[in-house]
Amino acid sequence: MSASERQTPGSTADLEGLIGRQLGPTSWVVVDQSKVDSFAETTGDRQWIHVDPERAAAGPAGGTIAHGLLTLSLGPTLTEELFSFEGFAMTLNYGYDKVRFPAPVPVGSRVRMTATVTAVTLVPGGAQVTTTQVFECEGSAKPVCVAESVGRFVEKQE
Question: Is 27 a residue whose pLDDT tops 90?
Answer without folding.
Answer: yes
